[in-house]
Design a protein that fits this description.
The structure is a single chain. This protein is mainly α and 247 residues long. The chain is built from ten helices and no strands. The chain has one domain (6-237): Four Helix Bundle (Hemerythrin (Met), subunit A). It has helices spanning 6-10, 12-25, 34-46, 52-80, 82-85, 107-120, 125-154, 156-164, 185-208, 211-239. Helix 6 runs antiparallel to helix 7 (125-154) and helix 9 runs antiparallel to helix 10 (211-239).
Length: 247
């Protein structure tokens, strides 16, 4: 598999966003919701009718996946910082081996996979496969690009880290000693606030089974992302070499 290009890495947020959009646009071809299809398939296996409780349960499961995704990404960003997480270029200056990075080399991308699984249950059956398979392939290509850059810069220490810590599927126990890093939870929340709102949209649907409520909350996630991205951009400009200190 080929590594992602410069264009793909720089525009990864919008490419992933387009993937989500395409997954939901497939409702024009396949009107059956993926989560509802699972509920009805299980009911047929049991020889019973699908119940309202079953529909709520499958979307609570989807919400749980999204909350797990938001939590893991927040934990990771608290060690990485949002400037790096939202950056347009691969950051190779330091090796982070604390927090979730002791369990998996790419916790942010593992969070993306969980998010795709959760939101896939909100899409059509075709959309589920587009979102989950598309996300897996795209993040793997991003990983190949990032790891090549870090390996070239960090050399043997990074190779030793890679030999101990799995690439994408987390180990239940830490695979390397703590590097002594301290998480900045405010930064973690700033960088991942939009993920929490996205998870909130699925929670809202699990409670109400109302698509209007779901899309209203989901739409607000992009507003939150714009606000957080503006804050991160301002911080980056203030910390740039030669920037004037605030008066």
């Amino acid at each position: 598999m080929r590594a992602a290009s410069d264009f793909e890495f720089k525009n990864r947020f919008w490419i992933i966003g387009g993937m989500f959009g395409l997954a939901f646009l497939t409702y024009a071809l396949d009107h059956q919701n993926a989560g509802a299809a699972v509920v009805e398939w299980l009911a047929r296996l049991r020889g019973t009718e699908a119940t309202s409780a079953s529909y709520h349960a499958i979307f609570w499961f989807a919400a749980l996946l999204c909350v797990m995704a938001a939590w893991i990404r927040t934990w990771a960003t608290a060690y990485l910082n949002p400037e790096v997480m939202m950056g347009a270029h691969v950051q190779t200056a330091r090796l982070v081996a604390d927090g979730p990075y002791r369990h998996v080399r790419n916790p942010l991308y593992f969070g993306n996979i969980l998010l795709a699984l959760g939101f896939g249950l909100m899409a059509s059956r075709i959309g589920f496969f587009i979102l989950v398979i598309g996300m897996w392939v795209f993040v793997y290509r991003l990983i190949l690009r990032e790891e090549a850059g870090i390996a070239a810069h960090q050399g043997e220490p990074y190779q030793a880290y890679c030999a101990s810590v799995p690439r994408l599927i987390p180990s239940l126990r830490p695979r390397v000693p703590s590097g002594g890093g301290v998480p900045n939870w405010a930064d973690g929340i700033l960088g991942e606030a939009f993920m929490w709102v996205m998870a909130g949209s699925v929670i809202a649907f699990a409670v109400t089974l109302n698509q209007t409520v779901y899309f209203l909350v989901l739409g607000s996630a992009f507003v939150v992302y714009g606000i957080c991205a503006a804050i991160v951009k301002t911080r980056r400009q203030r910390s740039a070499p030669g920037a004037e200190p605030p008066s």
